[in-house]
Amino acid sequence: MSGILHHWRHPRRCYLLCGIARSGSNLLSDGLRETGRAGRPNQFFLPSFESQFRTDYHLGADVKFADYVRRIVEKSATSNEVFGFKLMAWYLNDFLERLRRTGAFGQAETSDLELLRTAFPRLRFIQITRREKLRQAISKARAAQTGLWKVQEGKMAAAGPQFDRLLISQCLKEAAEEESIWSAFFARIGVEPFGVEYEELCRDYETTIHAVLDFLEISLPRRIKIGQPATIRQSDGLSDEWEHRCRAIGALD
Question: Which residue of 101, 174, 180, 185 is surrounded by the most CB atoms within 10 Å?
Answer without folding.
Answer: 185
